[in-house]
Amino acid sequence: MALRTGVGLAAVARPAYITSGRAHDLGASRSPDELRRRTWVVLDAAYAAGVRYVDVARSYGRSEEFLAQWLDERGADDVEVGSKWGYRYVGGWRVDADVHEVKDHAVGAFHEQVAQTRALLGDRLGVYHVHSATLDTGVLTDRALHEALARLRDEGVRVGVSTSGPAQGDAVRAALDVEVGGAPLFTSVQSTWNLLEPSAGPALAEAHARGARVIVKEVVANGRLVPGGGDASPGARRAAELADGLGVPVDRLAAAAALAQPWAWRVLSGAVLPGHVQSAVAAEAVTLPPHVLDALPGLVEEPGAYWAARSRRAWS
């Protein structure tokens, strides 16, 4: 039986990201060759552990390229690949860039980016998500775009949305209602859900009930729920205490809580080191006792405050 853990390359295939602890995990050497090597180390560890789903995106630096090269070298034909379009990486491979990515949900951007993705991944592309679909960009009401996405769907690629922000639930529900040719267009949903910000949960349960696959991202809250993460917020401190009581690291507790959701098809590890992958996979064997499950609602932050704090995180 396939593991429910997947691995995402957002934090390892580009020099800067908003996850904490990058100076410790990556050091100062972040050339393309060095991050290619590190990406391959993470992918090797994930594959050896039984992970068979990998998440990349056009805006994750050179993640599609690094993954395609790894797949060619390793011959890992049983890996399912999900990628995303809608953001462009513009950071110039610099940690101190003023802007690292820009959003564009126009139909022209889709045609440009899907061609780039397929040039690298070819028929290995299994899932293609709209990156951070929201109600305000029009991506969920653009019929010309929906027709273009439907052609990709009809070629055998699953089409979906990823979501971010305090209104994730609204975006998920709007996406589920989009039909083209009498069939649902979006049948994969990738959303942020974690111990501090689980507000998308009811919408994700609805997505699962309507036949969509649900992928959980940012389960460790961009490094806030990892050992030594330095987060002094009440929810993060209490999560660490609960993890200590179970004898597991807090990132494993966070992943186990996501895996405990019956609607979750895959829970992504944003690994930078092999140990991150191994801890995420080990979460599959963790059963949360009732007293821990009862305590989890007390960790939750108000969604608007959570996302405002996330938007203030520095790229490093």
Indicate the topology.
Blueprint (H helix, E strand, L loop, with lengths): L4 E4 L13 H5 L5 H18 L3 E3 L7 H12 L5 E6 L1 E3 L11 E3 L3 H15 L3 E6 L12 H12 L3 E6 L4 H9 L2 E2 L2 E2 L3 E5 L8 H9 L3 E5 L16 H13 L3 H10 L6 E4 L4 H9 L7 H6 L7 H9 L5
Parallel strand pairs: 1-2, 1-12, 2-3, 3-6, 6-7, 7-10, 10-11, 11-12
Antiparallel strand pairs: 4-5, 8-9
Helix pairs in contact: 2-3, 2-10, 6-7, 8-9, 9-10
InterPro entries: AKR2_Oxidoreductase (IPR053135), NAD(P)_OxRdtase_dom_sf (IPR036812), NADP_OxRdtase_dom (IPR023210)
Protein name: Aldo/keto reductase
Give your account of this protein's structure.
The chain is an alpha/beta fold and 316 residues long. It has one domain (5-311): NADP-dependent oxidoreductase domain (TIM Barrel, Alpha-Beta Barrel), CATH 3.20.20. The protein contains twelve helices and twelve strands. It has helices spanning 22-26, 32-49, 63-74, 107-121, 143-154, 168-176, 201-209, 234-246, 250-259, 274-282, 290-295, 303-311, and strands spanning 5-8, 53-55, 80-85, 87-89, 101-103, 125-130, 158-163, 179-180, 183-184, 188-192, 213-217, 266-269. Helix 2 crosses helix 3. The longest helix is centred in the N-terminal third of the chain and has 18 residues, at 32-49. The chain is globular, with a radius of gyration of 18 Å. 47% of the residues are buried. The model has no long low-confidence stretch (mean pLDDT 97).
Total domains, how many? Answer: 1
| Envelope shape | globular
The top level CATH class name: Alpha Beta
Number of strands: 12
Give the low-confidence spans.
Answer: none
How large is the count of helical segments?
12
CATH superfamily: NADP-dependent oxidoreductase domain
- Across the major sheet, the strand order is 1-2-3-6-7-10-11-12
Alpha carbon gap, first and last residue = 37 Å
Instruction: Classify the fold: give the CATH topology.
Output: TIM Barrel
Tell me the major beta sheet.
Answer: 8 strands, parallel, barrel
Determine the mean pLDDT: 97
Please state the CA-atom Rg, rounded to the nearest Å.
18 Å
The CATH level-2 architecture is identified as Alpha-Beta Barrel
Helix content: 40-55%
Element order, helices and strands?
A: EHHEHEEEHEHEHEEEHEHHEHHH
* Percentage of residues in DSSP E strands: 15-25%
Indicate the structural class. alpha/beta
Pfam families: Aldo_ket_red
Domain NADP-dependent oxidoreductase: 39-296
Organism: Vallicoccus soli
InterPro entries: AKR2_Oxidoreductase, NAD(P)_OxRdtase_dom_sf, NADP_OxRdtase_dom
